[in-house]
Structures are given as structure tokens and as C-alpha cells.
Amino acid sequence: MREIFSLHLGQAGLGLGSACWDLLALETGLSLEEMWTQLPDHSLRPRALFIDSDPASGDALRASSLGERLETGQIVAGEGDLGGVYQWSRVKLIAERSVESMRKELEKCSNLQGFIVFHALAGGTGTALSELLLAHLKASSPKATIHTLNVFPCNLQEESVVSPYNALLSAHSLLERADISFFVDNKGLGGIAKAVFGTASVPYSCLNQIMAQAYGALTANMRFSSSFNADLSEFVVNFVTYPRFHSCLLNHAPYFSSLHPYHPVLSTSELFTRVFHPLSCLSSCSQVSGLYMTCGLHLRGSLSLVEALAAAHCLTSSHSIHYVDWSPETIRCGVVQERAAAVLGSGLEAGAETGLAVVNSTAVREMYGRVGKQGERMLGKRACWHWYEREGVEIGEMAEAVESVKALVEDYKEVERH
Q1: C-alpha dist (Å) from residue 320 to 306, 314, 317
Q2: Which CATH number fits domain 3-247: 3.40.50.1440, 3.40.50.2000, 3.40.30.10, 3.30.950.10?
Q3: Which of 67, 128, 242, 355 has the smallest number of CB atoms closer than 10 Å to its CB?
Q4: 34 is annotated as an active-site residue
Q5: Of the listed 96, 158, 234, 397, which one is catalytic?
């Protein structure tokens, strides 16, 4: 067994984590337990840590069904919400406590393969905590692979006034410290919710359940018997062409509402069509505006790998998706026979066959570009800079983050030109 340890940071990280672990708990009967610790009474405990500055988030988690599975030390809370502001002084204290709790948990691992870190890029807690803890993970576990699952800001005007600064600092940190990152945003998740439920006015808990379905597919090859992307490091090998180009997008389909009793049975080719439809993307950037560098499809259900490979060949041969010149135009396919589950009361019902596309595309430059432009504009006016200056963040650090993100956008454009 090669253990995987998860970190859930900030309000978004805890919300996503709760939804994902509830779903994984339904699938533990047949799955490999890299992500769980088995206790003497044969019950399973998530191999994870949940950290937020707001104690109310920890209290809500303790009162949930997931909280019943957790030990006291797995939930670390601060003294109050940071209000979306990057507050080093308060976050450092939380980080110190988190490192000690994590050390105790990791001592129980015999063969750690890596970490999966959940957090948003726009919030104060998730941003500051991720920067501190990712640096610690790199230093303390240099051989471990670090995956991050990030909620990217889709509309900075709707976030807090300092969100562009937070997002810039976090994006810069991910470029240096994460081995592979998976980006989603609330606009993309909301578009899926509107297609499934007929309305985009759904609570965050519903968006978290939509993301949880995709996360179940993302980790299925690690949790069940499969030869495709069987561990965290293989993800990096298969999807990351160059270290800086490690930001991936996710497409997942189909989603079904539990209010509708009839769900069509999809052929393999129909499933592929749905997965690669723009409305199946969990982020709001347009994939048709970029070029694919790598792509893999994780399938679940009673599907034939031979038929999947044939459908993938037809899709690439029809030039429905476009690759950079130097990349082989292939879609790597893997099939896990165990079908997906759905949490009771989530409003969703699992399909008999589902697919998740992991796409490393230059289209992600749109997301970085939005953050870079907004942050650079604010920094030029020194807007709200006193909050960061008070916390000891130097203007040079933010300028470096701006230049790093701008350079990455230009790197993606250069790849498209060649």
C-alpha cells in the first residue's frame, strides 16, 4: 500500500473535502484503501487534515457525518474568519499547529506516495495556508508528489476586493511547488448545475457535489484495480509535458438529477461526445480557444477498453480537438469497471457509465490572464496594499508574482504559435 494524504484548506477546501469524502465513503467496500486508515475496530478514517481560520467551519464539520469519522487532531481551526484578507501573522500560527498535527498523522504511514491539497485561490486563509504548507511539504517530503485541486476565481469583481492579490500569490506558489494542479471554478460548476437542475441558483453544497463526482473519477484508478494512472506520480508523467505547464482542466459527464427517473444509456461514442462538450468543463475557460498538450480519459462502468480506444481514435482523427504540433494526437484511456456512486440527498444520481477527461491545454492561459491583468492594475495603483504591507508582504514579492503569471501566459501563447 502507498498512502495518499489529503489537506483541505480554508472554507472552500473544507466544503469540497466534506463532499468528496462522503462520496468516497460509499465506494470503500471494493476499493483499495490508500486514502483511508483502518482502525482496530475495522472502521475507516480519512487520511486527511481539515484546516480553516474560522472555528465555525470546524464545528460544522465535527457535526457532519464525515466528522464522526475524524479524530480531534484532524480538524485545525483558528480564532476567527480572516474576511478574505491575506493575514500572515494569524495564518502562521495555524500553520504551525497544522504541521504538528500532520506530523502525527504521517508517522502512521509506511510508504507515503504524496499529497492532494484542496484550496481556493481567492480567499485569504486558503491562499496563505497553501503557500506555507506547500513549502513545508516540499522541504519535509521532497520525494512525495504534490497534487492540488483548486477553485480558481472566475469573476474577481464578485470576490473580495483583494482577491486578485490573493490569487496572484497563490498561483505563483503553485507554479513553484505543485507537481500538477487541477483547476475548477464556480462559473463552470454553475453551468453544469443549470444544465442538470434547470437553474444556476444552487447552493455551494450542490456545486461541491458536482465536483465530488469528478473527483471520484479522478481518483478511481488509484482506488480500484487499474493499470492507468495508478499512482500520483504517474499523473505527472502522463499529463505534464514541462514543469511550468502543469495546470490541467477537467471535463466530466454525464450528470443526472435524482428528480428525473429516466436516464439514457449512452454508447461509448455518445459518452465521449458528452465528456468533450463545452458544457461538461468544470471551469469557465473555452477549451476550443487553446491547443491540447496531453489528454486522458478516465471511464467508469461496464465499458470496453477496445471500444474506448476506437472512439478516442475517431475523435482525434476528426480533428474535433486540436493538439500542439509536437504532441502526439492521442487520448489515453483507462476503464474502471466499478460504477460511480452518488450521495443520498445530493440531488444527483450516478450514471451507469461516466467519463472524466483530464486536459492539459493552453486554454488555461485565459484563467491566468484574468488574474494577472486585474492584479497588475491594482498593484499599479497600490489599491488596498496597506493590508499586505501590514502583514510584512513586500511589494517586490507581489511584483514577482505578477511577472511570473504574465510570463506563463506568454509561454502558453508561444506554444500555440509553434
Answers
A1: 20, 9, 8
A2: 3.40.50.1440
A3: 242
A4: no
A5: 234
Q: How far apart are alpha carbons 9 and 357 in whole angstroms?
A: 25
| Long-range pairs of 195-198 with CB within 8 A, sequence gap ≥ 24 | 195/255, 195/279, 196/255, 196/256, 196/257, 196/348, 197/257, 197/259, 197/347
What pLDDT was estimated at residue 283? 95
Alpha-carbon distances, residue 71 vs 4, 20, 75, 309 (angstroms): 18, 18, 8, 44
Among 182-191, 235-244, 381-390, the minimum mean pLDDT is found in: 381-390
Q: How many Å apart are CA 190 and CA 119, to the nearest integer?
A: 18
Specify the CATH architecture of the domain 249-362. Answer: 2-Layer Sandwich (3.30)
Cell numbers 498561483 correspond to: 171
Give the per-residue pLDDT at 30: 46
384: left (phi over 0), alpha (psi -120 to 50) or beta: left
Domain map (residue ranges) of the chain: 3-247, 249-362, 366-417
366-417, what's its fold? Helix Hairpins (1.10.287)
CB within 8 A of 337, min separation 6: which ones? Answer: 224, 300, 301, 302
What phi, psi does 279 have (nearest 5°)? -75, -5
Evaluate the CA torsion angle 26, 32, 37, 39 in order and state its sign.
Answer: positive
State the Cα–Cα distance between residues 131 and 63, nearest whole angstrom. Answer: 29
Omega before 55 cis (within 30°)? no
- In angstroms, rounded to a whole number, what is the distance separating the alpha carbons of residues 14 and 75? 10
Q: Position 40: which residue type?
A: P
What digits encode the pLDDT tens for the residues 15-67? 999 999 999 999 875 445 689 988 888 888 999 999 998 899 999 999 998 99
Q: Which DSSP category does 323 fall into?
A: B
Dihedral angle computed from the Cα positions of residues 223, 229, 233 and 239, in that order, rounded to the nearest 10 degrees: -140
Where helices occur in 141-203 by DSSP H, the ranges are 163-177, 186-197
- Could you tell me the three cell numbers for 284? 469557465
pLDDT tens per residue across span 301-311? 999 999 999 99
Residue 216 reports pLDDT greater than 70: yes
Q: Which residues, including other chains, have CB under 8 Å from residue 396's CB and lie 6 or more apart?
A: none
